[in-house]
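Reopening this one. Same input as before:
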Amino acid sequence: MYKGYKVRLFPTPEQEELLWKHIHACRFVWNYMLAYQEENYKNNKKHMNGYEMIKKISVIKKQNEYKWLNEVNNSSL
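Same output, byte for byte:
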């Protein structure tokens, strides 16, 4: 027999803002890496594994254009 639990969160406005930052950052990184993989596929380059993507994310976060990714926790990305 399996049991399920429902949990409802009531974040403060500051916590809600931080949750949305995490959600938007994760969505951005997902779409960025997907586009990068598709570009590699079109150019017959090697497919990146998870570890290579983590290294790529670290490089992306150092660029001035994507400094806002440093506002969220690294493990969520």
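So the earlier flakiness isn't reproducible anymore. For the record, The mean pLDDT is 91.
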